[in-house]
Amino acid sequence: MVSIDIQNAYVDFPIFDAKSRSLKKRVLGKAGGKIGTDSRVPIIEALRGINLNLAQGARVGLVGHNGAGKSTLLRLMSGIYEPTRGSARIRGKVAPVFDLGVGMDPEISGYENIMVRGLFLGMTRKQMQERVEDIADFSELGDYLSMPLRTYSTGMRVRLALGVVTSIDPEILLLDEGMGAVDAEFLAKARTRLNALVERAGMLVFASHSDEFLVELCDSAIWMDHGEIRKHGPLRDVLNAYKGRDVVTELAERT
What we know:
Layout: E1 3-14, H1 21-31, E2 34-36, E3 43-55, E4 59-63, H2 70-78, E5 85-91, E6 94-97, H3 110-120, H4 125-139, H5 154-165, E7 172-176, H6 184-200, E8 203-207, H7 211-217, E9 220-225, E10 228-234, H8 235-243, H9 247-254
Parallel strand pairs: 4-8, 4-9, 6-7, 7-8
Antiparallel strand pairs: 1-3, 1-5, 2-3, 9-10
Helix pairs in contact: 3-4, 3-5, 4-5
């Protein structure tokens, strides 16, 4: 059984050779935490006092303003970051999808990038070879798949990356939204594959600013604010608290 168990976890980033407070502020804005004052070296408290237990079947959305700590929390869950204090125990094979372009090489072909990206996400070469035709059909890139990735537009790169990402079989899927560069028709097609991907995953944690995606893919949510969990519970309750209105009802009335 897959699980994520985080107990009183902190993630701190020491800032060495900071020359001015303006530098500290710039870093703080990116990290989403607070500047510690009890050290000669400035410390960015990116996550503070995180307590979280997620079990098999969890479908969790992460909400919060830019810099609130959503991406840092995802990286803690993936093992990229280790807690400075506290503990983070992850059971299961993690597929971190933080940037659709990570693991792709602009100098090699689309076909070769399918293999490279799949291996980066923990799949075997044989598994990816079995998926190449399906990914090619989904991406609708045709002969471009034989050309170097640097010849692709941003939208074409996202199509290829989405094709690979939605073909994997993760136990824990950590997804940071990055799908805005594709056209609406293709995005609708991608949603079907995303839903199937979520169904195959033992657990989903999805950081997104899209209420529609969150309602479609998640049943609970975590509101992050300045590196802390502000609220954790049913998706509707958390979205209402974060947005100050009944988002789920609004979406239902539009359809």
